[in-house]
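Retro notes
What went well: the complex prediction finally ran end to end.
Inputs used:
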Amino acid sequence: MCGMRPLPGFRDFYPEDCARRGYLLDGWRAVACRHGFVEVDGPVLESMDLYAKKNESGAEILGQLYQFTDRGEREVALRPEMTPTLARMVIAKERDYRKPLKWFSIANFFRYERQQKGRLREFIQFNADLLGDASTAADAELISLAIGVLREFGFTRDDFVIRLSDRRAWMDFLAARGCDEGAARAVLAIIDKLDREPEASLDAKLAPHGLTVAELRAFIAAASPEHFAPLLDQFEARGLREFVEVDLSIVRGLAYYTGLVFEAFDRGQSMRALAGGGRYDNLLADLSDGSVNLPAIGFGLGDVVLGNLIEETPRAREKMERALGAAPAAEIYVVIAGEARRREALGLVQSLRDAGWRTDFPLDAAKVGRQFQTADQLGARFAVVVGNEWPAVKIKTLATRAEDSVAHGALAEWLKTAHV
RNA sequence: GUGGCCGUAGCUCAAUGGUAGAGUCCCAGAUUGUGAUUCUGGUUGUUGCGGGUUCGAGUCCCGUCGGUCACCCCA
């Protein structure tokens, strides 16, 4: 009310929302580290030049920037993606690091677009990039990370698939059909819409290039597996072959991709791509005017679509709920049964906290029944009752309602054995 | 930027153009030290906002803001 809502496309994170977000970020970070990637980050605010330089033709992209003039008269923008920042960082200090670079980042991004399912104006994205290695082994390593991230949340081959494609296959095909590079780019944009636009309208767009939808579909259907055989073998060796398939209809929208491109989809096809990426072997050289020439491959994965798919997939949702349930607001609730013992209870609370237990207690005098109810609602495993029996305390295991009694000095030991 | 649908209590939703309601949540209590149920009581509304039609508008019309979905775009 009172107009005190967050801006369109922006989110408040209440405790349960923060817990969910933490679950996603922890999973991303854990899997990336497990794959030998290290974390990097950059500023939320960047100079406009960083984006203007990369997208000479991208007036559309510039129009989606949160852009303004700062108090120092600088033209700046909130970051809409990680790649320009990453490219700048790599170009500046790449000689300080052994190759290949295996970097990942977890960052929030801002795009001024109308929101819809799976798309907001501020979102969080996991980005991973492998730089300085142009091999198929590097391709497989990066895509395996994408698979690993999705599997981490409980998804299986029944839930998602990575579609592999290669722009070089298309460029060779189109060159053989007489398209120059500019025409080929235009055709790629049309291929990107194959399933979304009526065939007749696509045929009309293809006519100037001497092509038809039928011919494109025939090429997609005839996708030569030999070309992908070395890559597919890498997944075979990792036991991940079932998570990938070749699909040349994937071309991705960005102009800077130079070869392999891929997208992750939910098997139900009920939402937009979960993740997408590809090779951009020329970008660093282009941005650094040739001074840094590193091949690179990377992908991004957003929190919004991933969160939606987790909610819609029972196996994944249950896994998340288990994880969140395992981290209650309090493990131990100290019940103060007699206010005369509040000082002793405070000392006990402090010692439990120092010992590493998530501990809570009532700030005000309250009925014992109410205190137990609070303990229950916080998700505590144990209630420790401090009252007349001091220096002994009662320990109640809330789930079983079993009660035990120990000297307060022996509580830490009791909890340690009970916890195992 | 374009279009469809939607906007009523904190939340989920009712109400033929005729007195704005239910459930839930939250708070308090049910003979003073034991939590899931139950019972009782209580708070909460400029019906998103602004105009218009009408004797009368939550309801119909226009605008606006927001939500949602699709187009555009997808880094």
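What we learned: Residues 15-34 of chain A form the longest helix (20 residues).
What to try next: split runs per interface for comparison.
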